[in-house]
Design goal:
The structure is a homodimer. By secondary structure, chain A is an alpha+beta fold. The first copy, chain A, has one domain: Orthogonal Bundle (Arc Repressor Mutant, subunit A). The first copy, chain A, contains 4 helices and 3 strands. The first copy, chain A, has a 3-stranded antiparallel beta sheet. Chain A is globular. Chain A binds a DNA duplex (30 and 30 nucleotides) through helix 2, helix 3 and strand 3.
DNA sequence: CCCTTTACATCGACAGTCTATGCATAGATA
DNA sequence: TATCTATGCATAGACTGTCGATGTAAAGGG
């Protein structure tokens, strides 16, 4: 898997995972890994800066919690975050379809 | 359209356009624009560095031609370029499907 | 005669990802 | 007990790649 492709989709995927309820960094990496069937591995060096970025942009809010003797920073999607997520998903849909057309539509079938 | 998503797909799309026969920079931008129905605009600041990159990597070879009083640098796909293109398309297919799964498969239908 | 289109190219700014590193704790295992 | 793996957060520096701006140049139309 070409990891360069992941650029620009990290924020969207984080927000998507957070839609199901408050979550934290490590859990996000696991969720993405599982949902993508092992294909997409969010690296820590990308994940944490992204989380901080999203919080600065008010798309996520954070809160420290102590669970099972482990401190976790839980992130919750804000209303603005939800809106942004919808827009990003729409963008992704249009973008991926556009690339598909450039590649000839049936590129996966030949 | 979020232009950040284009990162990592530029080289692939250039190679794809070149599959149909020797082409040149400006023609590539037009081809991508038309095939994507106006969605994807390869900027010159990305295009020319990419063409040079691909030539350095021996995936393309170039040749100057004079057509209708215009000098154009035609690029031709090498056998290695063809192989790389196939791999990149496969990568893209797997990647886009993986993102789709993370987003919930039916994200375009809701 | 100018404006748009065609055509190539580069530079510096900028954004975002990655590797490596650091810290810390829980639980399993040797 | 000591060590290893998994969990959990974080940052710094390297690196890559895209973009806007800028430059050059010529064709063709108004």
């Amino acid at each position: 898997m070409d990891q360069k492709l992941i650029s620009g989709t990290v924020d969207m995927m984080i927000l998507e995972v957070a839609v199901d309820g408050p979550t934290y960094g490590y859990a996000v990496t696991q969720a993405v890994l599982q949902r993508s069937e092992g294909k997409l591995e969010l690296k820590e060096g990308s994940l944490y800066p992204a989380l901080h970025r999203l919080e600065r942009s008010k798309l996520l809010t954070s809160e420290w919690r102590e669970v099972d003797g482990r401190r976790r920073k839980y992130y919750r999607l804000t209303p603005a975050g939800k809106k942004t997520l919808q827009a990003r998903k729409q963008d992704w849909l249009e973008f991926s379809q556009a690339v598909g057309r450039v590649l000839g539509e049936n590129y996966g079938l030949t």
